[in-house]
Amino acid sequence: MTKTIAILCIIAAAGLIAWWGVTSGELWTLDKVAYTVTDPLFGTESIEWREEFRVGLLPAVGPVAATLLVVGGFLFWKRRRIQMKPQAVIA
User: Fold this and answer.
1) What's the pLDDT tens digit per position in 56-85?
2) How far is CA 65 from CA 22, 41, 55, in A?
3) CB 36 within 8 A of CB 5
4) pTM confidence score
5) What's the confidence (pLDDT) of residue 26?
């Protein structure tokens, strides 16, 4: 049972990091994104800020993924430690 939970934790952490990489790849969470807009009449460029949410690695995804990896690693370690306990020999 612990092995299954450990594997699920590690898969969830990998999926969370992959989702973050595909959706935004930002280090910090953004609520506005800068876009360059070109004026068709004069050809000048200006920056326009649009409301758009992008989740960040450091404040949101990183701690959750790290916690899942630590829990999964701990469960693997605990399972291995229980299996390696010396068994009492009954004579």
Assistant:
1) 889 989 999 999 999 999 999 988 887 777
2) 15, 48, 13
3) no
4) 0.72
5) 87
The residue behind tokens 């829990």 is: 71
What domain count does the chain have? 1
Expressed as residue numbers, the domain containing 78 is 2-29+55-83
Which contacts (CB < 8 Å, 24+ apart) does range 2-8 have? 2/75, 2/76, 2/78, 2/79, 3/75, 3/76, 3/79, 5/72, 5/75, 6/71, 6/72, 6/73, 6/75, 6/76, 6/79, 7/72, 8/72
Q: Which residue has the tokens 């959750």?
A: 64
Bridge-partner residues for 34, per DSSP?
49
